[in-house]
Amino acid sequence: MLVMGILNVTPDSFADGGRHNQLDAAVARGLEMIAEGVDIIDIGGESTRPGAERVDEQEELQRTIPVIEKIAPLIAKTDVKISIDTMRASVAEAAIKAGASIINDVSAGQSDTRMLSTAAHLKVPYIAMHWRGHSKDMNSKAIYKDVVAETISELEDRIQVALSTGVAKENLIIDPGLGFAKDADHNWAIIDAIDRFVDLGFPVLVGGSRKRFLGGDSPDQREEATVNLTKRLRGTGVWAVRVHTVKPHKEALES
């Protein structure tokens, strides 16, 4: 199982907003993750925490592209990859040109009608997450009769749209979207049934790091629970975990 390290170059992300939103700090954090054995550095310039307002395209580009341009040469002779965490096709395109090689789209192509065709054209791995709407109102959409069945069904719809748009099957990765339009019980139900997502036949990314359903009064207090989640997912066939720290998760997977 791979470890995807989160590098939010934002002032308002829920767990680490403002810590790495200056270029030097972001690059230093990237270097730290590389030293700790990260497999993928996921760089994002727009917070998707519940209630977050969107940033404009130019701001997202200004936050992310210089960081990618600085980190990309540092990983050129390693197996480390950069992914761009974005819902905008224009940002994805610029990021791939700057040195990223994976697109991580929490909206699975629903936020930008150009995204899927752009991913198909770029011929890079594309992560499609289960999504029911933007951060400002997603909590109101956490209504399910059967969260596992409905999440799978909605993901399957996006898979078909992606494939029909030209995204190669071997480039498609799925994410059940823990915390996105889901409450704590929904998240645990998905984790308990993670094998059903793996059985869809695509690599599965799980991003539960420091989220509220893990307990604790603050994101930093949820680190131990996040590591325990990684341990729980070990051996399930999950492709990667998306986490805020690298070393504890690498150690958990190697123990």
From TrEMBL:
Reactions catalysed according to its record: (7,8-dihydropterin-6-yl)methyl diphosphate + 4-aminobenzoate = 7,8-dihydropteroate + diphosphate
Pathway, per record: Cofactor biosynthesis; tetrahydrofolate biosynthesis; 7,8-dihydrofolate from 2-amino-4-hydroxy-6-hydroxymethyl-7,8-dihydropteridine diphosphate and 4-aminobenzoate: step 1/2
Alphabetical list of Pfam families matching this protein: Pterin_bind
GO molecular function: dihydropteroate synthase activity; metal ion binding
Domain Pterin-binding: 1-254
Entry EC no(s): 2.5.1.15
Keyword tRNA-binding: no
Keyword annotations from UniProtKB, A to Z: Folate biosynthesis, Magnesium, Metal-binding, Transferase
GO biological process, one term: folic acid biosynthetic process
Cofactor: Mg(2+)
Keyword Magnesium: yes
GO-annotated cellular components: cytosol
Signal sequence segment: none
Database matches in PANTHER family: FOLATE SYNTHESIS PROTEINS, FOLIC ACID SYNTHESIS PROTEIN FOL1
NCBIfam families tied to this protein: DHPS
Protein name: dihydropteroate synthase
Organism: freshwater metagenome
